[in-house]
Structure formats: C-alpha cells, structure tokens
C-alpha cells in the first residue's frame, strides 16, 4: 500500500482530488466509486474547482456510491443521494443518468443488492474507488463482524457508527440504524483504491489497517490484499504509524 503523508486536511483533499482528476483525464469515460461523509468534502470541492477553472469534464464519467441510509428517500436532506448532489453533482457536468446511489427505500434489499453488484460488473467494474475509514475500521458500511461480506446488502449499523454520524442529525435518535452498503467484492474489484483519513480519531483504525492482521473485526484490513491501494492521510491520522 502506498502511503502519502499530507500535512493537514486541506493538503489531503488537494492530493486526493489530483489523483481523481488524473484518472478522469486518463480515461474520460471511467467509472468512479464515490464515498460520503465529512472526509471527502474537501476533495469534492477541489474537483469542482478543477471543473470550473481548468475545464475538467465529467460528462462521460459514471459513478457508483458506496452506500445509503435505509429508510431515507433520495430527497431527504440527510440522505447520501442529497449529499452527493449538494457537494459534487450539482456543480459539475456529470450526466444524471450516469449517477448511481443505492436506493434507501427498496423493499427487497437482498434482490436490490444483487442488481447493484451486477450493474457495476456489467458496466465494466470500478476504475477508481474512493474510500474513507470509520473510527472502528469500517469501509462503506461494512461494519466489524465475524466475516467479510462480499455482496451489496442491508446492514445494521454499530453503535459507534451511529454516534459518529449523529453530528449530521439533530439528535442521535434520528440517525438510521440500517444502511444499504456495497460489499467487499465490488470494492476489491476496483482497479485502483484511494483511501482518505484525517484526524486523530482515525489514527488507531489506520494503524490497524496497515499493520494489524487481516481481520473482519477491522474491515479495512482487507485492503492489504489489494495490489493497488493508495492511502492519503494527514499527520494526525498517521500519528501512530512509524
């Protein structure tokens, strides 16, 4: 795994955006796997700047998001579909038909998850997958557990994940307890993976991802088996890594 040590969050965001922009320039019709949460917001802001100031076009790009809260419609202000529109899609020239975010209102999560994975596969697979890492080591909403789950599916969120995400809601009680999450098969199927980490709250998870055994109790540890992973992290997130 290639480790890039950024000075701070802004430096991390700029470096990550350059990686993604290079992918789009190299293959204008590439497939990007995209993440949500606070970590990639700065990266998306940089990509918007590249679009506005440098003419970087996303008109042929297709995207697949990692996850969506179960029970929230795409119009809900806390849905990840809304997050992506607000923080990226509304500000670039990506074609709406090329955007894929899991449906949080599906009545058949198992069947829907299978269809989502099949759509990624028939589209050619993900060229570059952007990931954050949770304080408990989750990637997407693949939470710590007894085994690695391959398929996109309905997952129960761990209490610390709910607590971490409560800052985006008026109260912890409003945070959904379940989500539709891309599984490890599609994530590891990406030709290139870009992991972002910022802040001391991610330091322990980053250390275990890099140095610990491959263990489903630390889901991000499975990235050790992928041949092309780049971690861009700031000093605080890498503070426990020698």
Q: What can you see in these coordinates?
A:
The protein is built from 7 helices and 10 strands. It has helices at 9-26, 41-54, 80-87, 109-122, 159-165, 184-188, 203-211, and strands spanning 2-6, 31-34, 62-65, 67-69, 99-100, 128-131, 153-156, 178-181, 192-197, 229-234. It has a 7-stranded parallel β-sheet with strand order 1-10-9-6-2-3-5, with helices on one face. Helix 1 crosses helix 2. The chain starts with a strand and ends in an 8-residue tail after the last strand. The model has no long low-confidence stretch (mean pLDDT 96).
Short structural description:
This protein is of the alpha/beta class and about 240 residues long. The chain contains 7 helices and 10 strands.
**Mean pLDDT across all amino acids:** 96
Order of strands, widest sheet? 1-10-9-6-2-3-5
Shape descriptor: globular
What is the strand tally? Answer: 10
Spatial gap, N to C terminus: 14 Å
State the CATH class of the domain at 13-42 and 54-130 and 143-190. Alpha Beta
Report the order of strands and helices.
EHEHEEHEHEEHEHEHE
CATH topology of the domain at 13-42 and 54-130 and 143-190: Rossmann fold
Radius of gyration: 17 Å
Structural class: alpha/beta
The share of residues in extended strands comes to 15-25%
What low-confidence regions span 5 or more consecutive residues with pLDDT below 50? none
Please count the helical segments. 7
CATH architecture of the domain at 13-42 and 54-130 and 143-190: 3-Layer(aba) Sandwich
The share of residues in helices is: 25-40%
Oligomeric state of the chains?
single chain
